[in-house]
Structures are given as structure tokens and as C-alpha cells.
Amino acid sequence: MQRVWTSWKIGTRLAIAFALVCALCVTCAGVGLWGLRHQSRLSDQLIAIHTLSNDAASMKFYVADETGWQSYEAMDVAAYGPVKALAADDVNVQGFADDEKAINALLTSWHSGAMSASEAKSFAALKTAWDSYFATVPKVEALWRQGTPASFQAATAAMNTGFNSEQYSQVVTATDDIQASIAKRSAALQKTIHADTARVRTITLAVTLAALAVAIGAAFLVTRSIVAPLKRCVATLRSVAAGDLTVRAEVVGHDEVTDLAEALNRSVDATATAVSGITRTAEQLSRTSASLTSSSTSVIAAADDATRESGRADVNAGQVTTAVNALSVGGEEMHAAISEISRNTAEAARVAASAVELTSRTAQTMTGLDESSDEIGAVVKLINAIAAQTNLLALNATIEAARAGELGKGFAVVANEVKALAQKTEQATNDIAGRVTAIQHDAKQAVNAIGEIDSVIGQISDFQTTIASAVEEQTATTADMSRWIDEVSGNANLIAENVGAVVVTASSTRQAIDGVQVASVELAGLSSELDLISNQFTL
After folding, report:
1. CA 249 to CA 232: how far, in whole Å?
2. Whole-structure pTM value
3. Phi/psi of residue 254, each to 5°?
4. Which residues contact 388 (CB under 8 A, 6 or more apart)?
5. Residues 503, 311: contact at Cβ < 8 Å?
6. What does each C-alpha distance from 218 to 15, 30, 191, 222 come to in angstroms?
7. Cα torsion at 308, 313, 319, 324 (round to 10°)?
8. What does the pLDDT look like over 244-296, one tens digit per residue?
């Protein structure tokens, strides 16, 4: 029964209980109304009987009063004679006449509808007896008017035992029969009313008690089916509030409280899953922060190395710039020498000797430039390797920050900055490498050109006849050399600028890694706080 009861919705249960109580209340009201209607009908009958009884009592009074007036007339006739005693204005005559009128009026207004069949028969006999009695009264008065003792005696005999007395006796008998029947019926009706009143009271009380019992039972069942599951849900919530996520509310039935218990269980499951995830995340975050700290330490060391190497590269770039400037000066001197050759062919031998010496120095200078370019290339490769390692570490830090979720957003920003700086460093070093390669290529061309100059100067003495054409060729070659030397000078300056940018980038990388290390320490602290929070729950 309890399982069936709890399978219904609370609204259905309340509606059934309310409908049942309403039905019982309607039953009680119906029983009461039936009792009131029955009592009202019996009361109407009793009122009618009482009215009829009043009519019979009035008739009884007139029966006695009428014979009294007749007796007074007889005494007055004996005392004063018939003339005075039977005068129209005599009090006894008038009293008798008034009673006769009242009797006739009572017979006319008699409540005959309330009479039984026997009473109606007796009432008909009563009316006949009164008519017969009043018909004998003039005969008695006629005897009185004779005024003789014999006539008076005859009248007295008629009143006592004669024709007048017989009719009067019938009136008395009919009246008594009516009164007796009315009294009997009144007593029986009163007894019925008392019995019906007791029965209605008993039925009403029984129905009322039954309604109370059913209402109390329904209230108990409804209350128990609602309060007990709610208490279990409250106990579950208190356990969850205390940190115990292993408890679950008992799910019984299909009502709203059952839905509440199921929702509570799902909520506890979701909370347990979330706390478990927080615990795992805290552990993973702790490991990630430790790994990030170690990685940031390695990146700091690499950044320091990059700073030192970039400083060296800056110095080398300065040397390259100096050498290129010197080469530019040599090119200008070569151009001046060739101009001198064109102005004074006679001094060709001296200029040739001077050119040999100058080309020798230029070759040495270009050789030093090539060696410096090689050193710059090695430094650039080292910086490029450091930038690639920094980029890889920044990528790993970005991945770890993504795993950390909301807590790793700040760390992800720092890692992205490091990654961007590493990429910029790599681009700069690649540009420097390209520039160094160009310098090496230009230096080799310059060396080749210088070799050609040396060859030309060696052949000056043998080919004096071709000095003019050689001077023209040398002039063109010198112009190309000037252009090459200018390009090398520009590239050397660009190398110096790029190396300076590498120094700045390495310093920025060092600062960014310091920020990463601070963020890793903060991540470790957050991991400890998450671990403390998750340890407050029992899974």
C-alpha cells in the first residue's frame, strides 16, 4: 500500500485525500440535512397534531360550558319562571347562544387535514351529535315554557337521561374519542421524533468520526510519504555539507520528493566528480609547475649564454665594420692610384709597386674579413640554436598552461611572449647569417679582384703598350670594387645593428623567463591551495 501510495504524485495524493475528506463532509452534511428534513417533517406533523389537539381541547371546553349554560337556564326557570329565565337578554341564554356560535365556528375551522381516518369518522359523528343536540334544545325550552311542575320534570328528565342527554352524551363521546386518538398519536409521534433524533445523532456522530478517522489517516499517510523522504534528503545534504560525498539519498516512488532525491544525488555525483577533477588537476598542476620551474631555469641559463655570445658577436660585428671601413679606404686609395696612372703613365712602375703593396694589404684585410665572417656565422648559429631551444620551451610552457585551464592563463601569456621573442631572435639570426654569407661572398670576390689587380700590375712592365686599355679596364674594375665595398660596408653596419638587437632580445628573454619562474612559483602555491580544498571532501 505504501509503495502504491508513493508511486503517485504529491498533488494526486493531496487531491485524493482532499476529495475523500470532502466526500465525507458532504456525507455528514447529507446525513444532517436528511435528519433535519425528517425532523422538520415530523415537527410539522406534531404541530398539526398539537393544533388539532387544541381544537379538541376547545371543543371539550365548549362541551362542558354549553351544558353549564343549559343547567343555569334550568335553575333560573325553577327560580324565576320561564318567562324571565328564557328571555333573550338573559345572561344564561346569551351565554348558551354564544357557545353555540363558537361551536359552529370551531367545527367550520376545524383542522380536519391533520386527522386520521378514525378521527375524521369521530369528527363527523361529533358534528351530527351537535346538530342533534342543538335540535333538542328548543324542545327542552318548550317544556320549560309550559311552566308546570310536570313539564319542568319532563325537561329535567330530557336533560339528564332523555333525548337531550342522549345527544349530549354522543357529543361527549365523539369529543373524547377525538382527544384520545389525538393524544395517542401525539405520544407516538413524540416517541418517533425522539427515536429519530437519537438515530440521526448516532449516524451523524458515526459519519463524523469516520470522516475524522479517514482524514487523520489520509493526513498521516500524506505527511509520512512526504516528510520521511524529505528528512532523508536533509540528512544527505548535511552529510554533503560536512564533506562526505559518498552518501546518496534513498530513491523510493515516483513523486516530486523522489525527483528531488534523484536531483540531489545527481548534484552530489557532479560535485564528487568536480572535486575529484580538482584533486587530479592540483596534482597535475604541481607536477607542471615543478617542470616549468626546471625548464625556466634551463632557459635562464641558455638566455645568459645567448647574452654573452651576442655580446661577443657585437664585438666581432664592430671589428667587421672596422675592416670594411678600412677596405673602403683602400678602394678609394686604389681609385686614386689608378687615376694617377691615367695622369702620369711615366710613374707606372712606381704606382705598380705601390699597387702590389696595397693589394697585399687588401688581401690580408679581406682574409681577416672572411675569418671574422666565419666567426660571426658560428655565433649566429649558436644564437639560432638557443632561439630554437627557447621556442621549444615556450611551446611546452604553452601546452602546460592550456592544461592548467583558468589558473594557467597568466602563465600562457608569459609563455607566448617568450615564444614570440624566440621567433624574433631566430629571424634576426637567420638575417645575420644571410648577411654574413653575403659578406663572405663579397670578400671572396674582392680577393679575386685583388688577384686580378696583382696580375695586371705584374704584367705592366711587359704590356706598356696596352696601358691605356688596362687603365680603362682598371678604372671600371675599381668602380665595381667601390660599389662592392659600399655594399659590404652597409651589410657590416646592418650586422652590427642586428647583433645589437640580439643583445636586447636576449636581455628581454632573460626578463621574460624570470616572469615565467615567478609564475611557476605562484602555480605551485595555487596547486597547494587546491589540494587543501579537495582534501576537505571524502570521495
Report:
1. 6
2. 0.37
3. -135, 30
4. 422, 426
5. yes
6. 11, 22, 40, 6
7. -170
8. 888 888 877 777 778 878 888 888 888 888 778 877 877 786 777 777 677 66
